[in-house]
Amino acid sequence: MEHQKSACVTDPRTTAALLTEGGPGTAFLSRLRLAHPELGASSVRTAALLTAICWAPLLVLSLLGGFAIRDAKIPFLYDIGTQVRLLVAVPVLVLAEIPIGRGLREAAGRFLSTHLVREKELTRFNQIFVDALKRRDSRLAEIILVILVYGGSSLIILVAPFESGSTWIRPGTYKGLSLAGYWYALVALPAFQFLMLRWIYRLGIWTEALWKISKLDLALTPTHPDRAGGLRFLGQAMPPFGLVLFALSSVASATIASRIFFQGETLEEYQWSYLAFFLVLVAIFTVPLLTFAPKLMALKERGLHQYGELASTYNQAFHSKWVESLGATEDRLLGTGDIQSQAALENSFRVVNEIKPIPLGLGDFLGMVAPGLVPALPLILTIMPASAVLKAVMRLAATAG
Q1: In the chain, how many domains are there?
Q2: Residue 365 — φ and ψ, nearest 5°?
């Protein structure tokens, strides 16, 4: 254990990876042999076992109670929202740790490999990730998440209108929960919500780490071709978060589908609420990159000032030498590098002027957002022809290209 801590102190890239390989719930999963204490819960085995623990007892109890396929307005196997929540969202939320952890590790490493962190800031940079590791393993955070999870589960089971009436959870308007309903309320639903909140918590840790890094004296260059001072790699780490968006969007879409099929409601009643929900999710996952907005805008302002002065000085000298000078002949122009230098300076000024407040390219943004939109396609097809949807997708792909 001491060796592991030492490695984290000397290599922030290792610590960054551990942001997704531990934290709330990992110790509990380890005791159930669902996760290795050092490798975290990022494995197919963990996803499969956790899914089985949540879903299989519900199937058995629903069959025993007679609510699996009949004797309820919404039988268990017909409950689209529950099936997607447990058979799709739960394993995806677990497996997403693998690519996201890899992306965060590479992003942390790029700060060092591209020499953005000055030597005088290396100690502070490393301490940022050590502190993040402590936040990840906070016992208080774990307790708070559990309280939120069971509070939310109770609210959904007891208050949410979708779970009222004759369903496999509560097979009668005035009856209590079925045995399957109790398992759902005490195990399955809390498991899903815990995984969801854990991702939000981890995102908060990553946001705090990036905010602290943004306060360092980084060696950013305004003319870096990535139009982000050399920080574009942070945006390149975002597409894997699309898996989390996919999982949460799947649950929302499936819940809407259930209400349409079993309660006679229409998509039009939910389209704006779903859009608002999705935009909020996208905004939440974009927040970490916003921490660099002040620094990038200051870099742009400083770069425009510096290169503006340089351009003025150079252009004045160029004009004086080649335009106002009576000796400016065609022979003298041939082979000179002055014009090429002027073009290079103009290009540098253009690059500085194109710096955006967020180090996120359109392709990376679409790579994160697109998976989250996939679950909405079946709903869209109920009110929009497939050909129109295909054309819209092709236009979006062409824009990204």
Answers
A1: 2
A2: -65, -45
